[in-house]
Amino acid sequence: MQNLKFKYSKFLLNKNYNFNRDYVLKYVPSNLLIDAYKTISKWKSYRRTPLYNLNKLNKDLGLNNIFYKDESKRFYLKSFKALGGAYAVEKISKKKITVSCATAGNHGKSVAWGAKRLKLKCKIFVSQNVSKMRIDEMKKFGAEVIRVKGKYEDSLRKCQTQSKKNNWNIIQDVSTKNYRYIPQLTMAGYSILIREISEQTNQYITHIFLQAGVGGLAAGLVAGVAKYFKRIPKIIIVEPDRADCVLQSIKSKKLKKIKIRNESIMGGMSCNKMSLIPWQILRKATNCCISVSDRNVAEVLASLKDKKYSNTSIIGGECATPGIIALIGMCNDLKTRKLINLNQNSNILVIGCEGNTDLKLYKHLLSKGRK
Ligand SMILES: Cc1ncc(COP(=O)(O)O)c(C=O)c1O
């Protein structure tokens, strides 16, 4: 198989690793995790997303199992983000409030959908980098979308000033010193992925590959692991090498803002600074960090679709690919493979965090990956 030649970019062992369930659940409390599952599992059309076995890839890599959690099927929103923003909207909704957020795409879609479910007004701020397709998706849920000149940070600033002026409730997924509760809710929402997995297989997961942008998904799933898994797997954080803010923060033992010279094709993960609560969780819970280049994204996306990894055709968008790229890259490096115990007893979990959320980009990558 051609793509078994992948290499990773950087690898870093976390010298401060010290996983402790109570410590993790101090930052995303257990009662929030329980409430998230209770609430979301009652939503109309809730059902668990599939957990596939990438049996063909597994045969090539010589592991025990590779599980792929397919979030392309999450509530027709095609990404795990459906669990976070929409749940936070429900928790804080009172009659007639207006909710707002800044977004690169998927988070805003979740907030817009959550607002529509509860018949609330919704204002979404996006930078000029957000595609028309993503904007149209949010408008479909009745949100007013406001374009802001500049980058994501500019759209966030505008969202904050306008929301203050108009008394709108901001639903942001990034936590800072004085903004914790709503991001905690979004992470609690994500954690139900792990609860589902704990019911979908009786194999103990030994390694979990978690992709990170600002780290909310990874930290939410780590909280899920602390709550629902009987054994703690090795936690491996995967990032684009163009935007490796988790790796750089763990390396320098402090929350670091990095410079992104070229945005990654994995748009949802092209972030320059971690969210605060995820930093507090991941700085201890992460075993190792790995970064991957954009080079292999199209090929993995096409291999998922064309059943090269499994018996099922899987629609995985650009952000769904880095776990597989990192896994193959690690297996190709005998030293790293040994260091993190990847062997015939390993049960791997990768997170297929999105489907074809940006249809135009998906089609482009699919045809590129098939060449
Ligand atoms: C599809 C997708 N994957 C991964 C991420 C990264 O999540 P986080 O920023 O919470 O680390 C995002 C964030 O927008 C995303 O949209």
Describe this structure in words.
By secondary structure, the protein is of the alpha/beta class. Helices cover 42% and strands 15% of the residues. Helix 6 links the parallel strand 5 and strand 6. Helix 4 crosses helix 8. The longest helix is centred in the middle third of the chain and has 15 residues. The mean pLDDT is 96. The structure holds pyridoxal-5'-phosphate (PLP). The site of pyridoxal-5'-phosphate has 19 residues, from helix 5 and helix 10.
Short note summarizing the structure:
The protein is α/β, with parallel strands linked by helices and 371 residues long. It is built from 16 helices and eleven strands. Pyridoxal-5'-phosphate (PLP) is lined by residues 79, 81, 104, 106-107, 211-218, 268-269, 271, 319, 353-354.
List keywords for this structure.
371 residues, alpha/beta, Rossmann fold, 2 domains, 7-stranded mixed β-sheet, 4-stranded parallel β-sheet, 16 helices, 42% helix, globular, binds pyridoxal-5'-phosphate
